[in-house]
Amino acid sequence: MKVDSSEAVYAGMMDAGIDFTVSVPCVNLRAVLEMVDADPGIMHVPVTREEEGFGVAAGAHMAGRTTAILMQNSGLGNSVNVLASLYSLYHIPITMIVSHRGTEGEFMEAQVPMGRATEDILRILEIPFITPRSPDEARKSIVEFTETSIRMGKPVAVLLDVSYW
Amino acid sequence: MYPTGDIMLERIEAIERITGALKDELVVCNLGFPSRELYSIRDSPRHFYMLGSMGMASSIGLGLALSQERRVVVLDGDGSILMNLGGLVTAAAQSPENLIIVLLDNRCYATTGSQCTYADVIDLGAVAESMGFNVIRFTDELDFERALKMDGPVFAHVPVKPGNADVPVIDLDAEEIIERFIKEVQGATED
User: Fold this and answer.
1) Which of A6, A26, A42, B113 could serve as A72's disulfide partner, Cβ 3.0–4.6 Å?
2) B64–A62 CB contact, under 8 Å
3) CA–centroid distance for A19 within its chain
4) Every domain of chain B and the residues it spans
């Protein structure tokens, strides 16, 4: 059976042992959010803004959870300070699963400027990232990057371009 | 109308009374002078001192409260609460029973030179009440035991005088602060 793109993301989260996720929705993450919500093994906290979500996940990490954030790349701009002065400062891990809008195939012009800025912002913040091209690659990347995140004590990002879905 | 008590404490006195009433609770303390004041009164591995990321105290407290059973007391300020009012909405909606958010309300950004916040004209206790928090207002005597006896999530509104105590910076680095706190939270025993 061919693994669907959303199922692969969810399966990657399960394989990685992620048991706590915060989220701000993106239309491309709709199916993943439904899967996470239906799973009693993962605590899901929808938040009002990505920055706040990083705060909530940091608290969960301190209590031993393996954490993720499901977000759109627009929310990266809302989160630069928390990523620097909480995550980087205290060496806190988190797996950022990011719908990367404004990439090839984007239908909404307004998404393009932040889409272009996303990778450079991650580089400046020294957050390792990967852009998987297939569901299989996405599933593996989420596992590998989560391991890296925990080992290095820093956030990592898995960018899911418009063409991924 | 802003609820001003006849007897308003200095913030450091309020922190001393509040933490003096605590036993096993975890404490997340807002950045700047509040953390310095707490550290100078009493230090503990049960304290998480924020050094940056203004506004995140209530959110960190929420994540902790949802992920383990011990009670979490967040010492927050009006400027920080206003910077992340959405976080208060999330905390109220998630509604963990083991969360107490304490607003040390001096109606200004004391750490940066006492510029006024809008807490001067907006009653943040009433805002929290409208969100669904069980609100207690300490406008006269600060007997924090009363807040500890309430059903959570609790929002304790504590008006304090503007200004900072003359206390030194925290001589722990970020890694020390979080490592010993994690050990405390996760119940690691002897090393």
Assistant:
1) A26
2) yes
3) 14
4) 11-185
Angstroms from A37 CA to nearest CA on chain B: 14
**Record: fold of A5-164:** Rossmann fold (3.40.50)
Q: Return all residues near A130 (Cβ < 8 A) that are at least 6 apart.
A: A141, A145, A157, A158, A159
The verdict on A19 touching B (C-beta cutoff 8 Å) is no
Length of chain A: 165
For residue B94, which residues of chain A lie inside 8 Å, CB to CB? 45
Q: How far is residue A35's CA from residue B66's CA, in Å, rounded to a whole number?
A: 20
CB under 8 Å to A128, separation ≥6 — which residues? A145, A148, A152, A154, A156, A157
Whether B11 contacts B110, CB under 8 Å = yes
Query: Is B53 close to A55, i.e. CB distance below 8 A?
Result: yes
* Closest CA of chain A from B100, distance in Å: 14
ipTM: 0.96
Determine what percent of chain B falls in helix, strand and coil, rounding each to the nearest 5. Answer: 40, 20, 40
Q: Which of B67, B88, B173 to mutate to test the interface with A (most CBs of A within 10 A)?
A: B67
Output the six-digit token pair for B188. Answer: 């690691």
Boundaries of every domain in chain A: 5-164
Q: Assign domain B11-185 to its CATH architecture.
A: 3-Layer(aba) Sandwich (3.40)
* pLDDT in single tens digits along all 165 residues of chain A: 345 999 999 999 999 999 999 999 999 999 999 999 999 999 999 999 999 999 999 999 999 999 999 999 999 999 999 999 999 999 999 999 999 999 998 888 999 999 999 999 999 999 999 999 999 999 999 999 999 999 999 999 999 999 999
Positive or negative torsion for Cα A148, A149, A152, A157: positive
The alpha carbon of residue A62 and the mean position of all alpha carbons in its chain are separated, in whole angstroms, by 19
